């Protein structure tokens, strides 16, 4: 596991965007695993800049997002589908139909999970971008006695809903469930880029990288992967 610490969040964003640009240059038809949350927004901004300057193209790429809220339609303001359009897809040359997110509004959620896993098996992720939840979640894999390997439905922890309530009018509007890629699917990626910013994540990133490998901190399972790069800003990395 390689850990890189950046003085300025913007330097981190540029470094991460450049890693994706290099991956796409080397293999234009790469499958990219993408994440939502506030952490990757700056990275997506750099990717858009690079695309506009002709330094990055998604023309032959495929993307899979980690997760989606159950019960929000793709055009709901706070759906992750809408987030991805707003922060990346609407601004770059990724062909329509090549961006995949789990569908949180289908009647048969179990079939959707199986379908997502089947697509991931057919197009394995080359490089997976990950943020980190305050409780150590990755995607929406919440701490638990057991974790599930494949795509599945999760009950969101109150703390996770509280953390995400800032994007909704009130916590009551935050969905109680999500559909997420499992930790097993995440660990199948060829390479993983974990990005962590802010003083409030310093404790959990230390636990994830240097603490015991435990399902009670899903991100700690990343310690078992052969090709993980962790990018932290100075505040998040201060205990490492
Ligand atoms: N499901 C997402 C995660 O994929 C994200 O990494 C995490 C941290 O979000 P943020 O980057 O806003 O702190 O929480 C959300 O709930």
Summarize the entry for a quick read:
It is built from seven helices and ten strands.
Helical amount: 25-40%
Distance from N terminus to C terminus (CA atoms, Å) equals 13 Å
What small molecules does the structure contain?
2-amino-2-deoxy-6-O-phosphono-alpha-D-glucopyranose
The percentage of residues in β strands lies in 15-25%
Element-level helix/strand string: EHEHEEHEHEEHEHEHE
The main β sheet shows up as: 7 strands, parallel
The CATH architecture = 3-Layer(aba) Sandwich
**Quick one: how many beta strands?**
10
Which segments are poorly predicted (pLDDT under 50) over 5 or more consecutive residues? none
SS field, number of helical segments: 7
Which whole number gives the mean pLDDT?
A: 97
Derived structural class:
alpha/beta
Kindly provide the name of the CATH class: Alpha Beta
Tell me which oligomeric state these chains represent: single chain
Tell the overall outline: globular
Radius of gyration: 17 Å
The tally of domains stands at 1
CATH-defined fold name: Rossmann fold
- Give the neighbour order of strands across the main sheet: 1-10-9-6-2-3-5
